[in-house]
Amino acid sequence: MIRKHNRRAAKAAYSVALGVALLLGLSAAAAPAAPQQSTPIIVGAKNFPEQYILGQLYRQALVAAGFKVGYKENIGSTELIDTALKSRQITLYPEYTGVMLSVTFKRKSLPKTPQATYSLAKQLYERRGQTLLARTPFQDRDVIAVTRATAKRYNLKTLSDLKRVPNLSIAGFPEWNTRWRGQIGRQYGVKGFKFVPLAGISAYQLLDQGDVLAADVFTTDPPLLGSKYVQLRDPKNMFGFQHVAPVVDQRLVQQYGTRFTSTINKVTRLLTVKAMQAMNKAVIVDQRPAARVADAFLKANGLKKK
What is the pTM (predicted TM-score) of this model? Predict the structure, then answer.
C-alpha cells in the first residue's frame, strides 16, 4: 500500500508541475537545461627540457591573453601523458606528430610527408574527442648519434651501418627500448645490441666517456650544433616526421573559440629550428629556468607585455 500511495503522490505532483508549465506557455521538454560546466584549460608537459619550454610558452601566452590556466609539468612519457589527457587531468599538451602515430595510435607504418602525418594524427585524435591545432615550422626528430671518432672508425653514415659495430651499445630514455628496438632490428637489421637507459646522466656524457657507442637523441639538442657528433641518417623514415602540434580537448575549442586557438597558433608559428635550439641551449646549457626563457621569448615577440 505504501508503494501505491507513493506512486499516486508522484503522479499528482507531476500533473501539477506539468499544468504550471503549460500555463506558462512551456512544455516539459522545453524547460531550460542546466548550464554545462566549463572545461578547465590545463596545460601538460612531458619529462624533458624542450617540453618544459613548450609547456611554459603555451601556458604563459594563454595567461597573458586573459585565460585562467592550470599547469602540470614533468608528467612523463607519451604513454603517461596521453593517459592524463584521456582522463582529463590535462586538456592540452604539445606532442610530436610522428610520435602521435607510432606511439599513441600504434601505427606500424608512417605517412611519407609531414602534412599527411599531421592530417592522419588529427583525424585519429578527433575520433576520441581531441583535436590538433597548427603545427610548428620546426621538427624535433629522434636521431641516433655517435661521436665523430666512432663514425670514422666504423664508417657510419646510416642506421643500417650500425650492423657492423661489434658490442654495440645504445643509450636512450627507457621508453625508447620498447618503442624502437624492434623497428631498428626489423627495418635496418640491427640486432643484439645492449640498451642503456638514461638515468640522471645525459646521452652525450655517455658518448663522451665511451660508456656507449651510440645514443638516441633529438635533432634540436644544443650539442648537435657543433661538429663533435654525427647524426646517422634514417632513410626508411623509422622515426617519422616530428613537428610539434598542441593536442587539445575539443571542448576547449568549442567553449573558448578563436581567441583561444589563435593565441596558441601565434606561439606555434614562431617556433623555428633556430628558435628552439636557442631556447634549449638557454635551459640545458646555461641552466636558465624554462619559465624565464619562455617569458623572454614571448615578450621579444610581442605576445606578452614587457
Answer: 0.73
